[in-house]
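Sample log: cyclic-guanylate-specific phosphodiesterase.
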Amino acid sequence: MAMVAGLIAIVAPILAALYLASSQSLDEEMARAAALAVEVLRRSDETSNQISAAFEKLEAAHADDPCSLTNIERMRELDLGSTQLQAVGYVANNKLMCSSLGRHGAGFSVGKPDYVNASGVSIRTSVKLPFAPGMPFTIATREQSGYAAIVHRDRALDVALYRPDMSIGLAGRSSRELILSRGPFQPEWLEGIRQGRKGRAFDGKYVLATEPSEKYDYTAYAAVPATYLHAGMRRAALVLVPVGIAAGLVLALAVFYLTRQQLSLPALLRVALRADEFFLLYQPLVDLQSGKWHGAEALIRWRRPDGELLRPDLFIPAAEEGGLIRQLTQKVMALVVRDVSRLLQRHPDFHVGINLSPADLHSDAIVGELRNMLQTAGIGPGSIMVEATERGFLQTEHATQTIKDIRAMGIGVAIDDFGTGYSSLSYLTTFELDYLKIDKSFVDTIGTEAATSQVILHIIEMAKSLNLRIIAEGVETEAQAQYLREHGVHYAQGWLYGKPMPIGELASRLAA
């Protein structure tokens, strides 16, 4: 999951950067196409306005002869006063009979109209006239009166294109006919043009912008080839992708950091406490004189969901550092109640030892928690013993009161791992204790020539002088047991008598 999250953290910003680059490039090309379409429409509307004005003025004169000298003079005035019209004339029977240039004799053939728009104006999109050979004109003719306006065919398209293969043009909405065009034209564009709505689209080949006229029956369009869109995307990607890579690396580092936090022992401990991954093993405590099992120490173990067992010397310090040791102690109490309530009820002279951490001894809640445990399990205080290491006694005043309160309940208290800490003698004389547990490191020196081999005798004599019952930890050989027995040690705990075992095995061996 961490690897997938890290990969997503890297890839997602890059994909986002590519998307932004594509989106930004598309927006830019659409803006350019729209600007061109707007300019084509502006020119076309200006030309159409002048054509309409010319028609209205000529028709308002009601000339008996449209080609009279007076009317031709009127046409000339309209021509000279126009910025978009090349000539104004009169068409009859598909012939230009006269214009602002004069009478044309029998007339110049202009051919049949390409189409008639909704306003009753016929459009001839490409007409060649004798007085301007080789130059195509567009002729708009009012069918009712015959008056015509002549413009250069490409006048409305005389727009500077910043790319040579772009397309611009004008198409009739109702007729769905192409009026003017410059550059490649795709027939399918007419479908969008016919709807008469302002549009922005990308069909995979062209970015298309359409601008319908609000007054006239046509729509201007501009199209930009996709090759420029891709080029723009590459340019934007050169800027945005490095930013995306940098962002991805930052996110990946964040995921890595959070993953390490989540996979750290304190984080795993929190999950394990909720998921009930902990269990207890019990190591018997034996009376060295009679061989009778006097009690057992509850030892917490942690099995991960994949079956892996984590050592207590790893997770207990992590629980202390992570502020979870109190919760771990509470878990031990709950497991003791679950495991041994009936066993202790059947064997009231048997006890279970529970390890308390320094945080437990310094907590105001521990005494109440122990009392609740006894009540829940239905057992007497003699069925429980608490063990604390020397570190738990560092805050002397608070620990002293806690130990007094625990002993007042009738629960025995042992100092664990004695001799491995500091100022051990001062602890023994300061606190009211019931048991002293000799650390395994001193038991291991029995029968050896080690420099510390005599320390165990001093510890035993010290405990006797203070009327403490003595428990030796880590007894593995009969020779060690005999030595301890001869020197007045009361109890022993170690592999000689039994390794830490599940509650079922403890119960069956205790009964035996």
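Observation: The first helix runs from residue 2 to 61.
Observation: Residues 333 and 370 are 8 Å apart (CA to CA).
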